[in-house]
Design goal:
CATH architecture of the largest domain: 5 Propeller
Strand order of the largest sheet: 24-34-25-30-31-32
Distance between the termini: 27 Å
Number of helices: 2
Shape: globular
Largest sheet: 6 strands, antiparallel
Number of strands: 34
Oligomer: single chain
Radius of gyration: 22 Å
Helix content: under 10%
């Protein structure tokens, strides 16, 4: 694995010519995705500024242009009319002011009539590399360029650690106020979310207090990417707790969870109806964000990063890494969320192919599961050996996913086997395979599981329990891997 110097990681991009050759090399990778948003070059991580504005879906992602390394972060911009066909639009935010001299870090978008705003964390570091995070705002002009406000709307609080970032802005009509949720860490190294409020979108912001989630005062060491939406009469709070191990997550210390409950803005208290749920059970899913301005009281739109902080993936050798998950429609059913690919994804479904054990490079596999124990092995060799194994244990009502059979193994220290409890049993699995990812929607999307995979030439077969009804369809490409900077 390449060792990067600080100077290399935090180099400023002055011209597209500096990375055109890198794009050409990256684009030749056999692992370039066909229908997932991916970095134009280098590294992509957190989704940002996800919003529906004047008929267009806007999505940004954290981008380091130089290679598969976390360094100087930009926001890269992609757009879509249907959440499925995505176009590269170029750099959305660049670190070019005092307040963001070492990176434009994660944040959210807000639509206000004809105007669209981006709220983000300006990552400032002084000559001694001491960090100061600022909450900053940019407004899109008529040409779609982000014009930054000259000053941050607020700076950090001294009574918390330097980890204060990822502003999520919401407007609460009943209060006639704007609120910003900030992921944070207190001085005891406990994860928190801070809340700021204002009567005005761009001024008058003041610290309202700390978000209280009763029973979860010691839950993780940092809460990244807090986000809240209202669906079908309930509030849904998601965030990514770090620096902690959680049940069923092997050695990982980075997670994505959600709570269903009620948010009280008078007391700044989110009262959960029960415990937390995993937003996705997979090896690689993090920093999820709900889109703003969806306009449907019974549905939210969610997207996450297929990757985890501090993890490493085989395409690092090719100087690129990461992609976004499929955008997902999210609905509330009983006491849990149900996720499904955005409706327009069905437009990508192509011809049905024989269910004969051959696995296309990209495909949609729908499986009706017979009663009893069940096994599915993806990416096996021709003789059925190896692969990405999915086993259902009927007696214990759990699904066990094991990727140790793949030729290209990675992040072994974090864990290669995960379990999913299925209290109601297993009825169906939808498996969506792209060049380097698998997304499984289990029991109609009541549970999801996302993972990177990097199959080699002889790993394009599958084995499934006899009696399972399998339908495989080809998928058409929907992302433009154009060089736009």
């Amino acid at each position: 694995m390449r060792e990067w110097t600080r100077e290399e990681r935090y180099r400023v991009l002055y011209s597209a010519d500096e990375i055109s050759d890198l794009h050409d090399r990256n684009a030749q990778s056999i692992y370039r995705q066909k229908f997932h948003v991916q970095p134009v070059t280098g590294l992509s991580s957190d989704p940002n500024g996800f919003i529906y504005h004047q008929g267009i879906w806007h999505l940004y992602y954290q981008w380091c242009p130089w290679g598969a390394v976390h360094g100087l972060k930009y926001w890269y911009h992609v757009t879509s009319e249907d959440l499925v066909h995505w176009k590269n639009a170029g750099v959305g935010l660049k670190p070019d002011t005092f307040y963001d001299n070492r990176g434009t870090h994660s944040g959210s978008g807000y639509s206000d009539g004809d105007d669209m705003y981006l709220f983000y964390t300006g990552n400032h570091r002084d000559d001694d590399w001491v960090r100061t995070p600022y909450t900053c705002v940019a407004k899109l002009d008529e040409e779609g360029n982000a014009v930054k406000l000259p000053e941050p709307i607020f700076g950090p609080r001294d009574d918390y650690s330097e980890h204060q970032r990822d502003p999520k802005i919401v407007y609460v009509p009943d209060k006639k106020k704007y609120y910003i949720f900030i992921g944070a860490q207190n001085l005891d190294l406990k994860g928190r979310a801070l809340i700021y409020e204002s009567d005005s979108l761009l001024e008058g912001w003041k610290f309202a207090g700390e978000l209280k989630v009763p029973g979860f005062e010691n839950f993780g060491g940092m809460w990244e990417c807090p986000c809240i939406v209202h669906i079908s009469g309930k509030d849904v709070l998601i965030f990514s707790p770090q620096y902690t191990k959680l049940p069923g997550r092997a050695e990982s210390t980075n997670h994505n969870v959600y709570f269903i409950g009620k948010m009280d803005y008078d007391t700044l208290t989110f009262t959960p109806d029960g415990g937390y749920h995993y937003l996705d059970y997979g090896f690689d899913f993090y920093a999820a964000q709900f889109a703003a301005n969806v306009g449907d009281p019974d549905k939210a739109i969610l997207i996450g990063w297929i990757g985890l902080p501090d993890n490493h993936y085989p395409t690092e050798e090719e100087d690129w890494e990461g992609s976004m998950s499929l955008p997902r429609e999210v609905r509330l059913v009983g006491d849990h969320l149900v996720q499904s690919p955005a409706a327009a994804f069905e437009q990508l479904l192509g011809d049905e192919v024989p269910a004969d054990g051959k696995l296309p490079d990209v495909c949609d596999m729908a499986i009706q599961v017979p009663e009893g124990a069940f096994d599915l092995k993806l990416f096996t060799k021709a003789d059925g050996s190896g692969g990405f194994s999915v086993h259902y244990d009927e007696a214990e009502k759990k699904l066990v996913v094991d990727k140790t059979g793949l030729t290209k193994r990675f992040n072994q220290n974090v864990g290669e086997v995960l379990e999913i409890p299925l209290s109601e049993g297993l009825a169906d699995i939808r498996v969506i395979i792209d060049s380097c990812s698998v997304e499984m929607f289990i029991n109609g999307g009541a549970v999801t599981f996302t993972s990177h995979v990097y199959p080699v030439a002889d790993e394009h077969n599958y084995v499934v329990t006899e009696g399972a009804a399998v339908k495989i369809r080809e998928l058409k490409p929907s992302v433009k891997d154009d060089f736009v900077v």
